[in-house]
Amino acid sequence: MTVKEALIAEIAMSVDDMLVDKTLVDHGVYENRTYTKELSETIGKASIDILLSIWTMPDVSEGGYSVKYNRDAVKSRLLFLAGKYGRTDITDQLNPKPTVTSKTVW
Fold first, then answer.
1. CA-to-CA distance for 101 and 52, rounded, in angstroms?
2. InterPro entries, per this entry (predicted)?
3. Distance CA 5, CA 41 (A)
4. Angle made by CA atoms 75, 64, 49, in degrees to the nearest 5
5. Cα angle 6, 1, 68; round to 5
6. Positive or negative CA dihedral for 60, 8, 38, 34?
7. Binning pLDDT at 50, 70 and 90, where does residue 14 land?
8. Is 75 among the domain residues?
9. What pLDDT does residue 94 have?
10. Phi/psi class of residue 61: alpha, beta or left (left: φ > 0; alpha: ψ in -120 to 50)?
11. pLDDT digits over 21-75, tens only?
């Protein structure tokens, strides 16, 4: 299995090949390299970048063709991977916790 195939499997949804290739290069890995266990964290972090890109993409419809992602599924997968790889910036943003901003004494 190549790292590209591993990344697509980790994302668990259909993604543009150019986005996958760019993300692999951004993470210092090239698509034809054989996937090994040592690359697991790199592939996981790369998948977070792709899912963030998908999360921010608008749904597109042109003629009879449309691209639409299930935002709940993307969010769920993104939260799982962000938690797994310690990306609290993402988990806090997508799943905010209520905070007390002021208190009133009765």
1. 29
2. DUF6706
3. 15
4. 25
5. 35
6. negative
7. confident
8. yes
9. 82
10. beta
11. 999 999 999 878 999 999 999 999 999 999 998 888 777 777 877 777 788 888 8
